[in-house]
Each structure stands twice: as structure tokens, then as C-alpha cells.
Specification:
The protein is of the alpha/beta class. Helix content is about 50%, strand content about 10%. It has helices at about 5-15, 20-25, 40-50, 65-80, 95-100, 115-125, 150-160, 180-185, 195-210, 215-225, 230-240, 250-255, 260-275, 275-290, 295-310, 325-335, 340-360, 360-375, 380-400, 430-445, 450-455, 475-480, 485-495, 515-525, 530-535; strands spanning about 55-60, 105-110, 135-140, 165-170, 185-190, 215, 245, 455-460, 465-470, 500-510. Strand 3, helix 7 and strand 4 (about 165-170) form a beta-alpha-beta unit.
Length: about 550
């Protein structure tokens, strides 16, 4: 076959790239097409109508929310044959060339690729020349925060006193990286994440125009996964619509890497219960199936936010876009949780999300964060601790200086004892202090936290039937915390003495000394609940003050 004929044959056989992705095809062309940025649209349209056009704009906000699209629409509004106008016609030569990206008077510059000072020097030379055919010469610099310090300095003079025919529009996802000298010379417009319902509304319009068959609950998944970015939502829709002609919910979940509701329910139960083994096992299963940990942490945040809503309000149905059955399941799960506990869980999840999103090992980061959250289960709220201290102070004021009466306890024969083992040793029953020391050592090998609480008590008396310990008045709140562990302590006494002794707990009069504030601080720091809070938040105690109705000597 002759070479000329071969080229012609190949040209016919190779298909031309005619498909336009949805994110480009449905890109806003006029101000009214922009979604979720009503305040900015209203401001710019009014400025154009009144002729209040500034020489430099700064558009900041998350990716895919319309910053560059707004810059192009503004350029069309300035150079339209009917302009400056708040409603560019879209059909004149200027509007068409700007839409197609071929206008010589609208120059788009990628700040990430032109970071050096030489690029800005070239820009400074070009701004001197008048526009070729338009009314203004518009420079759109995307990701402007990527410019170097020297490049910003080179731009500063031009930005301060630009020619009357030049408009600068800067777009950035990180406005804090813009030097204050540049920032102060621009009119700043902060773009926000687009609400989920607005994204869903736009997606419905797109699938109607494109003839895509997809259920509304699948669109809701796409909108949630887009996390406020319209461009991301359209890109995901493009990907999912290529999968099959009629997309099911399960297919959407699989493509997006989203775990189903049952997995989220099981994982949240494990987090609430502090079951670290089950938590790690569930994450391993999700990782093996290829789920994205960044999506998983977002789903957990959404779930715990829903739990908080159903906990604090009776009208959860009017706030959450969920069915009655789903809300009822949330209420059931939240019934055993306090608002303080939910607040701590939400705080930790929100702190964990950016760590997982930017981590080199998202799985390990998520596992470590969820392990930290497991400590929350055993923690008491600050209000509970204050109530305990308040009750303690009140009881001390009403109690004489003699030892308090023994704590009422249910009969020993009615308590359920753990399975017993033969005595390890036969310590002399009259050696009270020896029995106590051996008991603390024995308990420490089985329950270190319980042993730490017992160390604040002291042995008071021992008989053939009872072993009595006492807490100083300032630490008597620990008596209630170890009450549930009584069978374990009595089993330890049996192993040490060979006798079945009943544990009795009494309050001892508090030893009061001058300058007792130090004693209060030591007692608060020693409290296991306080220690748990310190470990969880990596914090320290700055100041300890006594309650108003506590003893004046304190």
C-alpha cells in the first residue's frame, strides 16, 4: 500500500478524541451557573453593574468549588461586547475565545509551574502593552501561593500601581501562604465548600441532560464522597457512569471504596466499647477489600455527628436526611453515651481526619488514632468528678472527727465470688501490714490500675472474718471506684491467708496540715480518671483549686 494511502487509512481507523468529560462540559459559563457561592456572585454582579471594578482579586477556597470558573466568567463580563456587564452574552467573539481558552487578552498562568522570579519579570514587561481586542488584559494566576518570595516581591510594584487596562485575578487553596503585602492589595473573596444538597441538585440536572440512569441514594453517596467539591462530584459521576448503564447502590459503594452501613455500625460500636481488638480486625478486613481509609474516616465522622444530633435534639428527622428506621438505630446506639463522651469522640475524629488524609500510611495512622479513642470509654466527665468532690466535701463537713461507720455492704454469701484457686501462701492472720503489702503486690500482677487505687488506702484491722481498710477523707471517693472489684480483692486475701475474709472499707478522718493545697494537687493528679484525661490529650495540670464549700484549711 502506498505511504499516502496508508496514512489516509490510519487516519480513518484511529478515532478522534471527541468526548468531553462532565467536569468540563458542565463547567459554569455565566454567574448564574455557579452553585453554592451566592454571596460572591451577588457581590461581583453588583460591582460590575455599578462600575466598581478593582485591579486585583484574590479567590481562595477548597479545590473544585468554582474559583477558576469565576475568574473566567469575570474576564468575560469585563471584555464582553456588551460589557462591562454582570451578564456576559456568551456569543460574541470575546466571550467565545475566553470560554475556549484562546483569548490573547486573558492569560492564565499556573503558579506551580512558574514559581521563579524570571516568569514574573516577563509578566511585568507584558502588562505595559494594551489589550489586542478586548477592553481589559486579565491575568489569572492559579495556585498563586506557590510563587517564590522573590517572585512575590517582583510582582508587588506592578500590583500596587498597575496600568488601567490590567486586571489581576489570583486563585489559591491556601490563602495563609500569601504574603500580607500582596493580600492587602487584593479584594479577597473566600469560596466555601458546596453543601451536599446543592451538589445533589446539580448532579440530578447533569444525569437528566446526559441520560444517565442512577438512583438518588447513589447520588447522595457521590455528593458525600465529593466533600464539598463540585468538580470532584462530576468526576466521580463520570467514572461511575462508565461502569454500567444502570448503576446500583452497591456498585457505587464498591467503586468509591465506601464501607456499607453495617460495617460502620460495627466499627462505631467497637470504638464506643473500647474494644481495640475488634477495631483493628475490622480495619484489616476493610483494607483487605481495598477500602480507602480517607473515605472511612469521613464516614465515621458523619456517623458520630449523626449520633450527636440524635442525642441532643428531639427533632433529628428535621435535621438529618435519614429514614425513621436509621434514626431509631442511631438513638439506640447513642442511648448509652453521654454528650461529653460523644464530644470527645467527635473531637478526636476531627483531629484524626487530616492526619489520615495526609499520611504516607493512612491505615496505621487511623489504627493509632482509634486506639487513642479507646481510652475515652473509662473516663468520667469533668462534671461527674466535680460532683464527687463536692459530695465528698459535704460529707466531711457533716461527719465528726471519729472514724466513720463501716460502709454498708451486701452479705458476703450473696456476692458472686470468682472461681477460686488454692492459697499461694499462709501469711500469719495477725500480720495485718504483711497481709496488706502482699495483697497489693498480688492485685498489681492482675490489675495494675486497681492496685494503684488500693495504694491510697491503709490496713486498719484484721480478724478471723474481716479485713478492714480505710481511705483518708480526701481519697474516700476511691472507695466507690473499687467496690465492684471486691470479689477480686477477697480472692487475693484468700490466696494470701488461706481464709475467707470479707473486705470492709471505712472512711478515715482526713489528716489536715497547714499548706494542704499541695495535698489536694497530689490527690487530684493521682486520680486514675484524671490520669486518663492527661494521657488522652497529652496535657498537664496547671492549677488545682478547692471547691467553695470545702474545708477552709484547704
Amino acid at each position: 500500500m502506498p505511504q499516502a494511502n496508508l496514512k489516509a487509512w490510519l487516519f480513518k481507523k484511529v478515532p478522534q478524541m471527541s468526548y468531553i468529560v462532565l467536569a468540563r462540559k458542565w463547567r459554569p459559563r455565566i454567574f448564574d451557573d455557579l452553585r453554592g457561592q451566592d454571596t460572591i456572585v451577588h457581590t461581583l454582579k453588583n460591582a460590575l453593574s455599578s462600575g466598581r471594578i478593582v485591579h486585583a482579586y484574590l479567590f481562595s477556597g477548597p479545590r473544585g468549588v468554582g474559583k477558576t470558573s469565576t475568574a473566567r466568567i469575570l474576564a468575560k463580563a469585563l471584555n464582553c461586547v456588551n460589557g462591562p456587564t454582570s451578564e456576559p452574552c456568551g456569543v460574541c467573539d470575546q466571550c467565545i475565545s475566553i470560554t475556549e481558552g484562546t483569548s490573547v487578552d486573558v492569560i492564565e498562568i499556573d503558579g506551580a509551574s512558574n514559581t521563579q522570579v524570571d516568569s514574573i519579570r516577563e509578566l511585568r514587561e507584558s502588562v505595559k502593552y494594551a489589550p489586542s481586542s478586548g477592553r481589559y488584559k486579565v491575568y489569572i494566576i492559579d495556585e498563586v501561593h506557590m510563587l517564590s518570595t522573590s517572585a512575590f516581591n517582583a510582582l508587588l510594584k506592578t500590583l500596587e500601581e498597575p496600568p488601567s487596562h490590567v486586571i489581576f485575578i489570583f486563585a489559591t487553596t491556601e490563602p495563609k501562604k500569601i504574603p500580607p503585602t500582596i493580600h492587602s492589595r487584593c479584594q479577597h473573596h473566600a469560596f466555601r465548600k458546596i453543601p451536599k444538597d446543592i451538589i445533589m441538585s446539580q448532579l440530578r440536572e447533569v444525569i437528566k441532560g446526559e441520560g444517565i440512569r442512577i438512583r438518588d441514594d447513589s447520588l447522595e453517596m457521590i455528593a458525600r464522597a465529593a466533600d464539598g467539591s463540585m468538580r470532584d462530584a462530576l468526576t466521580l459521576l463520570d467514572q461511575i457512569s462508565s461502569f454500567s448503564e444502570e448503576i446500583t447502590v452497591d456498585e457505587v459503594r464498591e467503586i468509591l471504596g465506601l464501607p456499607d452501613a453495617e460495617v460502620i455500625q460495627a466499627l462505631s460500636d467497637a470504638i464506643i466499647d473500647g474494644d481495640t481488638s475488634k477495631t483493628i480486625s475490622l480495619i484489616k478486613g476493610l483494607t483487605d477489600k481495598g477500602y480507602d481509609m480517607r473515605f472511612l474516616i469521613r464516614e465515621l465522622i458523619e456517623h458520630f455527628r449523626n449520633l450527636t444530633i440524635v442525642k441532643i435534639t428531639k427533632d433529628a428527622g428535621g435535621i438529618l436526611e435519614l429514614t425513621e428506621d436509621e434514626i431509631e438505630r442511631l438513638r439506640s446506639q447513642a442511648s448509652g453515651l453521654g454528650v461529653e463522651q460523644l464530644t470527645l469522640l467527635m473531637t478526636e475524629l476531627l483531629r484524626l481526619e487530616p492526619e489520615v488524609r495526609t499520611s504516607q500510611n493512612p491505615r496505621y495512622t487511623l489504627e493509632l488514632g482509634l486506639l487513642r479513642m479507646s481510652f475515652i470509654k473509662g473516663m468520667a466527665s469533668v462534671s461527674d468528678i466535680l460532683k464527687r468532690l463536692d459530695n465528698l466535701s459535704t460529707s466531711r463537713d457533716a461527719t465528726p472527727s471519729t472514724p466513720a461507720a463501716e460502709e454498708e455492704k451486701e452479705p458476703a454469701e450473696e456476692r458472686q465470688r470468682p472461681s477460686t484457686a488454692p492459697p499461694d501462701r499462709g501469711t500469719d492472720i495477725n500480720d495485718r501490714d504483711g497481709i496488706w503489702q502482699a495483697l497489693v503486690e498480688t492485685i498489681d500482677s492482675e490489675d495494675h490500675l486497681l492496685a494503684g487505687k488500693l495504694m491510697h488506702a491503709r490496713a486498719v484491722d484484721v480478724s478471723d472474718k474481716d479485713f478492714t481498710i480505710g481511705f483518708n477523707g480526701g481519697m474516700s471517693m476511691l472507695a466507690g471506684l473499687i467496690k465492684d472489684k471486691t470479689p477480686l480483692i477477697e480472692e487475693g486475701l484468700y490466696r494470701i491467708t488461706g481464709k475467707r475474709l470479707n473486705l470492709k472499707i471505712i472512711d478515715l478522718p482526713e489528716e489536715k496540715t497547714r499548706g494542704n493545697n499541695k495535698s489536694i494537687r497530689e490527690r487530684v493528679i493521682a486520680d486514675p480518671v484524671v490520669q486518663g484525661v492527661i494521657r488522652l490529650f497529652n496535657s498537664s495540670i496547671v492549677e488545682v483549686r478547692p471547691l467553695k464549700n470545702s474545708d477552709k484549711q484547704e
